[in-house]
Write a structure and sequence with these properties.
Helix content is 26%, strand content 35%. It is an alpha+beta fold. It has one domain: Alpha-Beta Plaits. Strands 1, 2, 3, 4 and 5 form a five-stranded antiparallel beta sheet that branches. About 7% of the residues have low confidence.
Length: 119
């Protein structure tokens, strides 16, 4: 019979406190003008487009087409970014605006679909 020491269980439990599940949105903290702390929770979304174009063209398309605020384009910083064209972009969207923004995005003619980034 295998017995587990209580100290091992405690140590293992404490080790898991350092890991944050990826499905929990990341809160952003900003300091307002009056000195209060404003916490905004955001999630990342992958926007797939119907055509391959430079990422800057896709970004400009969204900037000129979306009426609502609460989103930011995330620049790609990986080896694939050196390719001249792409058919997707990554957005950071405030959780309080996600339904409105995703509703606007999926109605755009050059957008194929929108998916949450689960990484």
């Amino acid at each position: 019979m295998i017995t587990i020491q209580p100290s091992f269980v405690l140590l293992l439990s404490l080790a898991f406190l350092h890991f944050k599940p990826s499905f929990i949105p990341t809160p952003n903290q900003t300091l307002t003008r009056n000195g209060t702390l404003n916490r905004t929770t955001r999630s990342n979304y992958i926007i797939r487009f119907t055509e391959y174009k430079p990422a800057s063209d896709h970004r400009s398309y969204l900037e000129s087409s979306l009426r609502s605020d609460g989103w930011e384009w995330i620049e790609r910083r990986n080896p694939a970014a050196r390719f001249p064209t792409t058919d997707f972009g990554m957005l950071s969207i405030e959780d309080s605006m996600k339904e409105v923004l995703i509703g606007e995005i999926v109605k755009l003619g050059f957008v194929k679909d929108v998916n949450v980034d689960e990484l």
